[in-house]
Amino acid sequence: MEPVPHILVVDDDREIRDLLSKFLERQGMRVTSARDAKEARKLWPLGRYHLVVLDLMLPGESGLDVARWIRSQGETPIVMLTAMAEETDRIVGLELGADDYLGKPFNPRELLARIRAVLRRASGEGAGPGAKEPPAKVIRFAGWLLEPARRRLLNPDGVEVPLTGGEYELLQVMVERANRVLTRDMLMDLLRGRQAGPFDRAIDVAVSRLRRKLEDDGRNPSLIKTVRGGGYVLAATVEKA
Questions:
Q1: Which of 18, 163, 192, 196 has the fewest Cβ atoms nearer than 10 Å?
Q2: Which three-class secondary structure state does DSSP give residue 147?
């Protein structure tokens, strides 16, 4: 039996905390809530959380501080709640490793859909009944090794490189479509099932973060190349076994 997802909601608005707690619990999830960073830190060792819903506008320590701290503790997925005007903070949050974001005010059902999508990616669920071939046990590219079953990335020296759920999904999408130009809209659709807005920099941020993990020079990348006016392409020979 699969474990019940345990969600940590961090938001200083009591009404939002209560609303999300009741709503997510009705959807079969377990919810713990915290009103600020201090309370979140106290609650962290008391439960094994599968995902954190994190408001960026917190009193005292900001949501960005909390996101940075969560990343220092491991790879627990993060869905950020942001005011629509907080574009800079949203981008910084994605750079810190958040897996998705949703602007306030939001529809609880949309947040539920985002949470379920991130949890599926984090658990490594496959493509489902429509898959045409079994997943590869290992994927090799440019000296790197990707293990889909364990969602692991090993560098050319055999050392594991930690990836967030979002980073892993982006890399998998690009590896499966190596040497093909993928526009930002295509990547957003493949990763989140929705089209990117004209000013959405989420993909650019995710690619930049992934380049750092792959030790790919951001100023002159040789592995994940930028196609001017087009998008990105993973320039590598891929071998599956």
A1: 18
A2: strand
